[in-house]
């Protein structure tokens, strides 16, 4: 979800690899081991949970998490918990990274020391305050000064133990401390509207002859206003602290008036500090991205250059190929390029062009696509995007079975357990390999058309380049479909969304052995046994009839690299697009902890209450949207896709509950509460995309619920009254390949800008006589320049387009700097990331002057 500004959309996303923890303090008991899991939180809202690693003080997770961040946040936090099946899980420690510090750790493995989890330091939210210093004339004719403090409202307060009943306590701090004055408690809301005023005496009575606000500077400096936010609790332990704000009265200045928003801060009560690594540490790799996307016309020059790459002569002189040469990692360039070309329907000619050029540079047919080139990375990314459903249908059922059965499959005599039999393990492994091999080689008709088109192009280019090798037309394709698609998915199913978490060590070893065998069966190498470094793998491979498996592989490769086209619409099997995943639920996990529920409001006419919201398991296919009492049970309700008229967010005030949305049908609306903001965005996005092809889609909707005989938003009393707000969503979108072309072009611009120095070096290489006549200079030897003149022309156009966009970004930042007020609702006081931005802009403005 983008944050909309004037002529600009801001996207935030984060990709995290949770590696491992070490030196976790032992459990205070005879066992000492712990069962630990890690959570990812936006401030205090959990959005992801790893699997639990049992009986370890150095748990290895190896899990990846990616999400689009749908709201503002202050901290990206990671908590390590010790699972307790009998009591509430206990927190061991946390890592909290401020938003403004995320770039320090961008894309690098880093060990973070765990810090104590203290309730007084877990804060979020902001408060709106208005302060006014005024004169009061007493009956005796003297003047004293009083401070009027107006607590207007708060936003985004944390929900503690499932509820938030906030109130504010206001006090004046100074030489003579005053008693705190409290607002009324606002029930069941984390966005309370207080609008209460409190008065404090600021100075001792002054002579009436003194000037207005003539207060000694030392006195004012000693005074501060303190506002504490609390959650009223019915528990015997007392109210929970939510955060505080301290305002020095010197901010009143000469005007005597101050009106601003403040971020709540932790309580400064000096909680016990810990030594480095006393609670252990956590290894993380965090990639935070913030894209500022302008209107589409700003990107036309650069986008046109990129899209012409498929037809450039030679392709090495194209804008896309130049980007691949400039980037330190080819993957950086591959991801946005593939998404851009997919969006504009030019992926096949582009990949065909760069693959043909790479094949022509290859001298040995046995080394085709063996390196991490731009071609291989782009085809990898295309297969991940276009082939995810194909992969899921082909492999997921068998991999699920392997993960649940836990059959022993170890065939290395050195690693064999005493209770295991080598022959039995070999037979178990052979059966798994046979089933997966059969599933793959019989899946050709389901291979996505775009992948078939790419494989056809690879086959033709390889066969033309190496005409004396009859098998090269197969190995060029198998090096992708087996080596880079099926084998990695078997090895790491969680990375390809086939499993929610990384498998346990025993299952992981089984999948490794299967992956190695499948990779070798699909390679069509001349001597496959020699491919294995391990003698036990070579011996295991002898179990397979080489000719039989080779024929099956060739038939499969012939099918998926044929020029024939398959009509995907003729496949009537429902495509499962989304269902629950293993993350935090609002109240409790299901029996196995294996699913995520959402909360739905019952459809009865009863007065609204908590009992009307029940946990249900939701599933979405391209045919229907269903919910079930529990995972695996029959559907309690089925909504055909054609009956979904709109999917929209529901205003929080409707039921005093966060992360709610509505699925609007012809006769009623289904109100649903997701588990967190990321989950809500994902469900709304996919449901909207599925239903956008519905010709009956609504143009307006009610953003609030119909309760107590009227719509809360527009107060109309007829439940069938037309909506009062325009629906969101646009033209029909491709469900599987949903891409924002402007956003991808912005990412490519950012890469060009990052590697501008390399672009300049490429220009120098093109203009150097050594490129034309003499030996190539060492500093230019890493660039592929087939045609210096054409490459130079493209570079000149690319650099010009990038510089134009850079000027537009700079101008936008300057305009925003002039317009934005520190202390506004958008940038409250205490927003350190904005303070850094202000400092940078001030330095930039000073430098430009």
Poorly predicted runs are: 205-218, 564-572, 581-596, 603-611, 730-736, 845-849
Number of contiguous helices: 19
Mean pLDDT: 82
Helix content: 25-40%
Relevant CATH superfamily of the largest domain = GTPase Activation - p120gap, domain 1
The CATH architecture name of the largest domain reads Orthogonal Bundle
Strands, count: 29
- Rg, rounded, reads 31 Å
Kindly provide the name of the CATH class of the largest domain: Mainly Alpha
Strand content: 15-25%
Structure report:
With 849 residues, this protein is of the alpha+beta class. The strands form 7 sheets. Strands 18, 19, 20, 21, 22, 23, 24 and 25 form an 8-stranded antiparallel beta sheet that branches. Strand 21 and strand 22 form a beta hairpin. The protein is globular. Mean pLDDT is 82; it is low at 205-218, 564-572, 581-596, 603-611, 730-736 and 845-849.
Write the layout of secondary structure elements.
Layout: E1 3-5, E2 8-22, E3 36-42, E4 45-49, E5 60-69, E6 75-82, E7 90-98, E8 109-113, E9 126-137, E10 143-155, E11 166-173, E12 181-182, E13 193-201, H1 217-221, E14 224-231, E15 240-248, E16 257-263, E17 281-294, H2 300-307, H3 319-326, H4 330-343, H5 347-361, H6 374-386, H7 388-405, H8 422-441, H9 449-465, H10 472-491, H11 505-521, H12 535-541, H13 546-560, E18 576-579, E19 598-601, E20 613-621, E21 624-628, E22 635-640, E23 646-649, E24 660-664, E25 669-673, H14 677-691, E26 700-701, E27 706-707, E28 710-711, E29 725-726, H15 741-754, H16 756-767, H17 769-772, H18 788-819, H19 832-848
Antiparallel strand pairs: 1-2, 2-5, 2-17, 3-4, 3-6, 6-7, 8-17, 9-10, 9-16, 10-13, 11-12, 11-14, 14-15, 18-20, 19-20, 19-25, 20-21, 21-22, 23-24, 24-25, 26-29, 27-28
Helix pairs in contact: 3-4, 4-6, 4-15, 5-6, 5-9, 7-8, 8-11, 9-10, 10-11, 16-18
């Amino acid at each position: 979800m983008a944050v909309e500004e004037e002529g600009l959309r801001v996207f935030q996303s984060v990709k995290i690899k949770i590696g491992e923890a070490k030196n976790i303090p032992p459990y205070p008991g005879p066992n000492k081991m712990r069962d630990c899991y890690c959570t990812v939180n936006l401030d205090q809202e959990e959005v992801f949970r790893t699997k639990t690693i049992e009986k370890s003080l150095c748990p290895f997770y190896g899990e990846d998490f990616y999400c689009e961040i749908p709201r503002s946040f202050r901290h990206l936090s990671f908590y390590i918990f010790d699972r307790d099946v009998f009591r509430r899980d206990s927190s061991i420690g946390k890592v909290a990274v401020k938003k403004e510090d995320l770039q320090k750790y961008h894309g690098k493995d880093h060990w973070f020391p765990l810090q104590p989890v203290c309730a007084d330091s877990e804060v979020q939210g902001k408060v709106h305050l208005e302060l006014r210093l005024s004169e009061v004339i007493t009956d005796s004719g003297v003047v004293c000064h009083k401070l009027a403090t107006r607590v207007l409202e708060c936003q985004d307060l944390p929900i503690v133990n499932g509820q938030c009943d906030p109130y504010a306590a206001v006090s004046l701090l100074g030489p003579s401390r005053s008693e705190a004055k409290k607002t009324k408690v606002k029930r069941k809301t984390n966005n309370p509207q207080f609008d209460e005023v409190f008065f404090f005496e600021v100075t001792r009575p002054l002579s009436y002859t003194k000037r207005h606000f003539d207060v000694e500077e030392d006195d004012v400096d000693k005074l501060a206003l303190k506002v504490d936010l609390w959650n009223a609790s019915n528990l015997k332990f007392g109210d929970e602290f939510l955060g505080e704000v301290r305002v020095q009265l010197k901010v009143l200045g000469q005007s005597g008036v101050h009106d601003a928003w403040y971020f709540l801060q932790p309580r400064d009560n000096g909680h016990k500090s810990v030594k480095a690594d006393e609670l252990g540490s956590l290894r993380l790799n965090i990639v935070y991205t913030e894209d500022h996307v302008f209107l589409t016309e700003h990107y036309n020059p650069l986008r046109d250059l990129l899209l012409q790459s498929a037809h450039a002569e030679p392709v090495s002189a194209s804008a896309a190929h130049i980007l691949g040469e400039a980037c330190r990692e080819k993957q950086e360039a591959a991801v946005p390029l593939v998404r851009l070309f997919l969006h504009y329907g030019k992926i096949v000619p582009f990949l065909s062009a760069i693959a043909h050029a790479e094949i022509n540079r290859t001298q040995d047919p046995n080394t085709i696509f063996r390196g991490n080139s731009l071609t291989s990375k782009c085809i990898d990314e295309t297969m991940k995007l276009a082939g995810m459903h194909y992969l899921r249908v082909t492999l997921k059922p068998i991999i699920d079975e392997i993960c649940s059965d836990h059959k022993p499959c170890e065939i290395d005599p050195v690693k064999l357990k005493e209770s295991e039999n080598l022959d039995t393990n070999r037979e178990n492994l052979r059966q798994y390999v046979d089933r997966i091999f059969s599933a793959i080689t019989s899946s050709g008709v389901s291979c996505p058309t775009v992948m078939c088109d790419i494989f056809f192009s690879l086959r033709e280019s390889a066969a033309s380049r190496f005409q004396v090798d009859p098998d090269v037309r197969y190995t060029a394709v198998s090096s992708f479909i087996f080596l880079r698609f099926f084998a990695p998915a078997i090895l790491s199913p969680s990375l390809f969304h086939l499993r929610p978490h990384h498998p346990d060590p025993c299952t992981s070893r089984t999948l490794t052995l299967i992956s190695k065998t499948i990779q070798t069966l699909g390679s069509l190498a001349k001597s496959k046994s020699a491919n294995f470094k391990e003698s036990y793998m070579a011996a295991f491979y002898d179990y397979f009839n080489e000719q039989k498996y080779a024929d099956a592989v060739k038939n499969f490769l012939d099918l998926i690299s044929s020029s024939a086209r398959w009509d995907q619409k003729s496949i009537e099997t429902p495509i499962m697009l989304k269902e629950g995943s293993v993350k935090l639920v609002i109240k409790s996990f299901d029996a196995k902890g294996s699913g995520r529920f959402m909360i739905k409001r019952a459809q009865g006419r009863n007065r609204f209450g908590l009992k009307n919201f029940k946990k249900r398991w939701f599933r979405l296919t391209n045919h229907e949207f269903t919910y079930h009492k529990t995972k695996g049970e029959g559907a309690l309700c089925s909504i055909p896709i054609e009956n979904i008229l709109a999917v929209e967010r529901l205003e929080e005030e409707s039921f005093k509950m966060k992360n709610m949305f509505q699925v609007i049908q012809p006769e009623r609306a289904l109100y649903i509460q997701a588990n967190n903001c990321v989950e809500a965005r994902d469900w709304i996005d996919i449901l909207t995309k599925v239903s956008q092809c519905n010709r009956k889609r609504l143009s307006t909707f009610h953003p609030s619920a119909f309760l107590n005989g009227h719509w809360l938003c527009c107060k109309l009393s007829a439940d069938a009254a037309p909506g009062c707000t325009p629906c969101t969503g646009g033209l029909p979108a491709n469900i599987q390949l949903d891409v924002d072309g402007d956003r991808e072009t912005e990412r490519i611009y950012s890469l060009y800008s990052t590697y501008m120095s390399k672009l300049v070096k490429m220009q120098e290489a093109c203009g150097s006589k050594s490129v034309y006549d003499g030996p190539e200079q060492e500093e230019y030897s890493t660039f592929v320049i087939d045609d210096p003149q054409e490459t130079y022309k493209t570079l000149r156009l690319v650099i010009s387009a990038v510089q134009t966009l850079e000027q537009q970004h700079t101008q936008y930042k300057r305009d925003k700097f002039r317009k934005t007020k520190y202390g506004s609702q958008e940038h409250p006081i205490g927003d350190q990331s904005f303070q850094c931005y202000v400092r940078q802009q001030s330095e930039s403005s000073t430098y430009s002057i």
